[in-house]
Amino acid sequence: MAYLNRARAQALMSEARLDGLILLSPESFYYATAAAAGVATIWRRAGAVAVLVPADSNVAEMAVASDLFMPQFRLNSHIDDVRESPIWVETATIDHASEAILEGSSVQVGHALNSVWEKNGREAGFNRPTTFNPQICYSHIKDALAERGLANVRIGFEASAVSVAEFSLMESVLSGVDLVDASEVIAQLKMVKSQKEIANLRQAVSVAEEGITAVREAIDLGVTRSELAACWNTAIGQSHHGSSLSGSWEYISVGTDPWGGDATVQAGDLVKVDVGCLVDGYTSDTGRTFVVGAASRAQAQLYDALSAGFEAGASLLKPGIALSEVHAATLAAIRAAGIPGYTRGHFGHGLGAGMGSEQWPFIAADSPVTFEPGMVMAFECPLYINGFGGMIVENQLLITDSGHEMMNSLSLQLVEI
Predict the structure, then answer these.
(1) C-alpha 258: how far from its chain's center?
(2) Any long-range contacts for 165-171 (C-beta under 8 Å, 24+ apart)?
(3) Are the beta carbons of 22 and 100 closer than 8 angstroms?
(4) 373-396: pLDDT as tens digits
(5) Among the listed residues 42, 48, 41, 43, the one whose alpha carbon sits nearest the alpha carbon of residue 65
(6) Mean pLDDT computed over every residue of the chain
(7) How far apart are CA 8 and CA 375, in angstroms?
(8) pLDDT at residue 19 is higher than 60
(9) CB–CB of 372/353 below 8 Å?
(10) What is the pLDDT of residue 387?
């Protein structure tokens, strides 16, 4: 099932005066089609795959997929109008009739294969590209636009996935189309999650908390940072939901170096655990802090200040509140609670499927966004001091119709081990 909401897409495109969207990144391709983008996207060059989403939700989408992945696309996607872009990998598709050609031919099987390719529509003189040919992709888009009566209109494209050099070819092939940077529209589209996306993120954070619990239990004098990281990986892999994971990441630090290293746990050390699990590409994000033995006066005061900021910001996490307002309240509370010089660019971010764990929008002073129901965010108040250690207060949350739901269950307190 694809995650793209056509009704929301139509509303956003209407507001931006767009007649359609062209999605180009592998993440957006999967988001709109529910089919894997395939190996031609490994270089992250535009034109390997694409999805055309007309503004009118009653008009069918069109996708361009690699020929190697066409069978999987047809199996997994709801989009019927899919067009091939050949890649470098030689392949063929055979049915029972084609198999008979190969098995029953009196000529060399390699020559018989030519008949199979001709049956599949391969033209004489066909040669595979070095990797893929983006011109073929853009030509398919041009044809699909014309077929839908969208030949000379305003089309938004995922500019964040296109280099300047790549755009010149796209613009040339799609001559007559007013191409507009729609990266922000696409980000707004992905910002509000479907029930399936929310379920992915809920499951991901549940597994992550199993891993955090295992790390907490493994903290002991003499244990190294790498051993705690290995404990995290083992625990999430052994979770009853572990087989659903598509990835994981961890930023665990021990002692006075908040950025990693391989320190050995000593009495009085801070252990910062900032981790995430991925389900179907959707990443969770949670941070917890532990201290070995009783917290020192400085550790307790600094953590209390971060907690005060978290509480102040969390009280504003609800629909209609500006993300910039949450940033201001959080920062003011941390400063008032004992760290007057504290500053931070953002106190959290969107969660979803992308290249990293942090996605737009950000809980930042310059954010133009207000909270909407269905947004899943990470809200965090961290502090990293070289020579002292790292600490973080962070939860994953869902914005509901009336407020928010914290998706975590573990305590946010500074836990003494």
Answers:
(1) 26
(2) 166/45, 166/46, 166/47, 166/134, 167/46, 169/47, 169/134, 169/135, 169/138, 170/46, 170/47, 170/134, 170/138
(3) no
(4) 999 999 999 999 999 999 999 999
(5) 48
(6) 94
(7) 13
(8) yes
(9) no
(10) 96
In the numeric block, the tokens 């190996």 are attached to 39
**Whole-angstrom distance, CA of residue 66 vs CA of residue 49:** 7
Evaluate the CA torsion angle 5, 7, 10, 16 in order and state its sign.
negative
* Domains of the chain by residue range: 6-90+128-190, 195-416
Give the pair of three-digit tokens for residue 66: 């690699």
Contact between 392 and 291 (Cβ < 8 Å): no
Residue 147 tokens read as 């077929």
pLDDT recorded at residue 91: 83
Average pLDDT over residues 11-26: 98
Residue 350, token pair as written in the block: 């969107």
Residue recorded with tokens 């009783």: 294
The residue whose two tokens read 């957006």 is: 28
CB 376 within 8 A of CB 397: yes
Spell out the CATH class of 6-90+128-190: alpha beta
CA distances from 47 to 29, 87, 185, 187, 191 (A): 11, 11, 20, 20, 24
Which residues are CB-neighbours of 7 under 8 A, at least 6 positions away? Answer: 57
Residue 190, Ramachandran bin (φ over 0: left; ψ between -120 and 50: alpha; else beta): alpha
CATH of domain 195-416: 3.90.230.10
User: Per-residue pLDDT for 283 more than 80?
Assistant: yes
DSSP assignment of 293-341: SSPPHHHHHHHHHHHHHHHHHHTT-STT-BHHHHHHHHHHHHHHTT-TT
Q: Tens digit of pLDDT for each residue in 81-96?
A: 999 999 999 987 766 5
Query: The pTM is what?
Result: 0.92
Local structure of 208: helix, strand or coil: helix
105-147 residue pLDDT tens: 555 667 777 877 887 788 888 999 999 999 999 999 999 999 9
Beta strands in 123-205 (DSSP E): 154-157, 178-181
